[in-house]
Amino acid sequence: MSLILSLDTSTTVCSVALHRDGAVVACYELFTDKSSSGMLTTLIQNAVQQSGYQLSELDAIAVAKGPGSYTGLRIGVSTAKGLCFALDKPLLAINTLEAMAHQLSGFYPISHALCPLLDARRMEVYGAVYDFEGREIQPTSAQIIDEQSFADLLTERPVVFFGNGAAKCRAVLGHQANAVFPESVVHPSAKTVGKLAAIAYVENRFENVADFEPYYLKDFVGTKPKKLVV
Length: 230
What we know:
This is tRNA (Adenosine(37)-N6)-threonylcarbamoyltransferase complex dimerization subunit type 1 TsaB. The chain is α/β, with parallel strands linked by helices.
């Protein structure tokens, strides 16, 4: 038996879910143009209390570890770690792209590969490739999209490109017969983070709370503030 609170703040979408033995009990998602992570604690409170539970009853805290937005990941991971320390609960960390792949598992034929993509500025994306059951084919990486991207894979089978970075891929690879693009954007969600976290809980794949850091994938590059014109 497990009661797991899951958080996903990898993008501007802020998502919180509560799972009992892998089944969704509650899920709150906030979609905004700007980062909505500031509402994270409110969503946590709503998910737990309105489901009839208390934070003390949780068995573990799970978080989408990245890749994704630097700011979003910092907020999500720091909140998860704070809850773990305060409640004396273990921490589970799930790859954001892996959780996204599980959202589409079963929606396409088994011949299709699933390629979740997250925007990483300019023509760069964070991406990985999974089979129809969510098993990894190509590992998570940061890459610049060009006409040769995923060339070998696209000659072998249809590939479903999705996520907020898929538009970059569509502009370059959309003409290829095996390139498939869903009509709507698929966002990271705590629903599938919690589903994978339930498996990780049974397998005792816990993180060291004190040392755990988000999976940024590449170094942070800040932008210089614009000069004020007087």
